[in-house]
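User: Can you model how beta-D-fucopyranose sits in this protein?
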Amino acid sequence: MKHVRSDFPKGFQFGVATSSYQIEGHAFGGAGRTHWDDFAATPGNVVRAENGDRACDHYHRYAEDLDLIAAAGFDCYRFSTSWARVMPDGVTVNPDGLDFYDRLTDAMLERGLKPCATLYHWEMPSALADKGGWRNRDVAEWFADFTTTIMGRIGDRMHSVAPINEPWCVAFLSHFMGHHAPGLRDVRATARAMHHVLLAHGRAIQAMRALGMDNLGGVFNMEWASPSDDSDAARAAAARYDGLYNHWYMSGVFKKSYPQIVLDGIEAHLPDRWDEDFDVIGSPVDWCGINYYTRKVIAPVPGPWPGLEEVEGPLPKTFMDWEIFPQGLYNFLTRTAKEYTGSLPLFITENGMAAPDPLQDGAVPDADRIAYIEAHMDMVLRAIAEGVPVKGYFLWSLLDNYEWALGYEKRFGLVHVDFDTLERTPKASYHALKDALTSGSET
Ligand code: FCB
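Assistant: Here's the modeled complex, given as structure tokens:
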């Protein structure tokens, strides 16, 4: 690895990220049905109709997995708590679910890992989806109840917490594009989800403050939008994409307003009195997380809002068909600090790439992933050198896992998982990071 720990400022945190449904094995421990189970059971939504029933069986193998994180020298583990494991019908508490996260938390602390929780990484209990899920304003109160329940149990030991992973995915990808659960394609449902996901974020922050917790943040995914050509129309389409993807959610949380370029398209579909909710949405947070993978090349198309499409770009691509564009991470770190967060600590809460990663004689020589990580670390260091307060970098992901609608084929792990035997094999990238983190002046 080109960089070592001592290239970063003292106290800079390195971590790995995962999420509950993608690794735990949702069939275990009394977890309730989720809208992802329903989505995956609907033909055509998920490759081979795969679901998270067994996943990586982390529910039973978490000790081995945490050993891997600690052995590589990571400081933090960003994990998520499944709403449907803790409250299978969205109301009743499953004691086994709370016990699991309690055990997991203590197991992190025993290994010297800082627990960094995300409350919601996409497994809405089906019973709440039946009531309209993210379309129903009550979701903010349901989510606040879940927050109080799970954090009432483990909140005393959390290093940091963010309520919701990637609000764009929760709202737009899932209600407008239909690519994730609940698989809707409806502009009105989308507008409501875009607002309610932020209201739920704010209520969860309030609920955790009421428990006396601190070091609370938000995790936003960002994709740089490049116009497909030099025309005004292409530039305007890219600006609309940038608005609905990158600006809407941060603007709500950090500016207590929504960007006009997005309101122009969806204001008519927002719930009544949406503009009275910003004191909740903008409840103060202590840090801001950015998940960054790629950029999109955007072209204008005729037709209704947002009047754009993604077109193929010229850059080398990962196994997800995502262009590799490290510059975008630098752009977002500098822009976020300048426009939204000022001196608030920034974290890269996800970054990484998928590859086919076959096992070769018991090893995975994933040189392309090492190069991807190095190129993105370059950008982190560049932003830091310019004074941007970046305080940590988390890799997606510890393990190969359930990559949502793309099933088990897209491998993002630093550790290879054989989905028949569930055997874990650290890849070359894991070993390279281990060397980088455990060598140098700070170790
Ligand atoms: C992010 C998600 C994560 C994973 C990666 C590849 O959008 O947070 O669960 O799917 O992409």
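A couple of observations from the model: The chain has one domain: 5-439. Residues 187-210 form the longest helix (24 residues).
User: Helpful, thanks.
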